[in-house]
Automatic annotation (TrEMBL):
This is Glycosyl hydrolase. It comes from the Eukaryota. Residues 41-129 form the Glycosyl hydrolase family 32 N-terminal domain. It comes from Fusarium redolens. The keyword Ribonucleoprotein does not apply. Pfam families: Glyco_hydro_32N (PF00251).
Length: 147
């Protein structure tokens, strides 16, 4: 028992100084531009994203679409609707924001009815012009919820 009491303060002191040394060393390491942003994951600049679609390769870039809500409000999570956002990459690590590809639906002015909110779907490259929009055209199919 006496031996434990004499060793404990030394062990505690050693742990404390080891932790302090590590903390001082860590404080000299430069921090990333943004500590809260993932380095290898796709994230929007603001608000939220979900439901990334299957990426496809066209030209010399990877293309990816995902659902995005640019005016999401935490106090009313179901409001605002979603749009499809488009990003591209040559290495699937660094991404370039291309903007909104399919806008969120807005009320139809003559009737005042909401046509529906764009939801999940997929996009493919039509290499044989089977849809009639031209060879190598990106064709998107989106699910729409209507009121």
């Amino acid at each position: 028992m006496l031996r434990f009491l004499t060793l404990f303060p030394e062990t505690l002191t050693l742990r404390f100084f080891s932790l302090l040394t590590f903390a001082l060393y860590a404080s000299t390491i430069p921090l990333a531009a943004s500590q809260t942003r993932p380095s290898y994951h796709i994230t929007p600049e603001k608000k939220w994203m979900n439901d990334p679609q299957r990426p496809f390769f066209l030209g010399d870039e990877w293309h990816l679409y995902y659902l995005y809500n640019s005016n999401w409000d935490a106090s009313n999570p179901g409001a605002g609707g979603t749009e499809w956002y488009h990003i591209t990459s040559t290495d699937m690590v660094s991404w370039t924001r291309r903007g909104v590809a399919i806008e969120k639906y807005k009320p139809n002015p003559p009737s005042g009815k909401i046509l529906g909110d764009i939801e999940t779907g997929s996009a493919v490259v039509d290499t044989e012009n089977t849809a009639g929009f031209g060879k190598n055209t990106v064709v998107a199919r989106a699910a729409v919820r209507s009121d």
